[in-house]
Amino acid sequence: MLLTVTTTHRPATDLGYLLVKHPDRVHRFDVPTGTAYVLYPEATDERCTAALLLDVDPQRLRAQQDAFALGQFVNDRPYAASSLLAGALAKVFRSALRGASKDRPELVGAPLPLQIRVPVLRGTAELAARLFEPLGWSVTATPIPLEPALGGDSHYVDLELNGELTLSAALNHLYVLLPVLDDAKHYWVAPDEIDKLLRSGAGWLAAHPEKVLIARRYLVHKRALTTTALQMLEGEEADEPPAEEDAELPVARKQSLAELRREAVLAALAEAGASRVLDLGCGGGALLTALLKDKRYTEIVGADVSARALEIAARKLRLDRMPERQRARLQLWQSALTYRDDRLRGYDAAVLMEVIEHVDPPRLPALESSVFGHARPGTVVVTTPNAEYNVNYPGLTGRRHSDHRFEWSRAEFEAWARRVAGAYGYEVSLRPVGDIDEATGSPTQLALFTASRTEVTA
To answer: Which cofactor does it need (predicted)?
Structure first.
């Protein structure tokens, strides 16, 4: 079982520093299913290729339930790329997957010209293109023919990927998508597989057009695990970077950025002493669920311009089966935040959690007028992505979500928040949300607006 990574970056031998494997040596690793080797068929300043060779011992593999009597000994597992190769990749290139290099730190976040080759991979050329092309790869998947006497093509392809990506992004793509193409895993799949998927898919999976198929196949068609993973992806919007744990070892689940964001919003509402709260742009209802669990919130309104989003929220909240006393605390309204809505007036607090970046910039003044001027809650909590932090997400190009109309730096968000506060009679404080990077700040930024006077000047 073979995988090669080639670069023409100058000097190309920097690949050895990024993989933490010296080109002049053959590196050997024991893995649960056999032995993995890393070697360099070529290593010059102009071109360098690293090969991961996995020598699988078929007797270490458990036979599949539907295999024939000798299936444990006669199978394609030693030759066709699969979850076995993905597992070896995670162990052998652990630092590179995390995007860590003490010798070449300046290259970690730099896109490199890369060519990936997997000579034998179970899957179709069409599916390979659907999975890799949205990630920026040029895909060549050549079907491997059967013996001439049989004619036709086999179920295997010779896969070649070409593109300019960070090495970390490339390896994480392979770690997730090799078992997806093979549509099988060769170890017990438990709930911790969701964490592996989210870590390696951070920055690209949430926006991938085939994310449902990827999650389903990666989690071996286990419905409960797939549903949970997709719900977490929907909340994260591809904005959580990979954790530093070994991708192949079960680890305690790290809080997602979506959860940290909700906790920060709830803390701001509690600090304000709010009891009647608007969730503006409530989407599928993640914050509404948290608000309902806290009895201090006596009246909760979820508002969204999308009727479909409100239907999803009602279904997730099980509105039709909610106890009457709890149901009396919650209302769902269809409302566009760029238009004045008298129903939104008079509330203690309003939350715009990851909302403003979905509004076209020319429409922001209308939102400001309707929320801060017309509805005028006592407290407004706004969260939005910090664009500066995006460099910490391997494989992320452009914005974090395809529907984002903009993403602001910390200075841009602060300037907007202070201008709005001054125009509409609020005081504002800004806070980071999530892990803080010394150079780029936190992944999410939060502004807490508190009404300071009754008159409106804009």
So the answer is: Mg(2+)
CB atoms within 10 A of CB 158: 15
Sign of CA dihedral 64, 68, 71, 77: negative
pTM for this entry: 0.52
Strand bridging mode 153-165 / 299-304:
unpaired
Q: What are the residue ranges of helices labelled H in 350-438?
A: 364-368, 410-424
Contact residues for 248 (Cβ-Cβ < 8 A; gap 6+):
87, 90, 91, 196
Amino acid present at 123: G
Mean pLDDT for all residues in the chain: 85
Contact 282, 304 (CB under 8 A): yes
155 membership: H or E segment, kind and range: strand 153-165
Torsion angle in degrees (nearest 10) through CA of 261, 110, 244, 220: 80
Contacts of 280 by beta carbon, 8 Å cutoff, 6+ apart: 303, 335, 337, 344, 350, 351, 352, 355, 371
Question: How confident is the model over 131-142, as pLDDT tens digits?
Answer: 999 999 999 989
The amino acid present at 357, given as its one-letter code, is E
Q: Domains in the chain, please, with CATH?
A: 2-185 (3.30.1610.20), 188-253 (no CATH), 257-451 (3.40.50.150)
In the three-class reduction of DSSP (H, G, I as helix; E, B as strand; rest coil), residue 6 is classed as strand
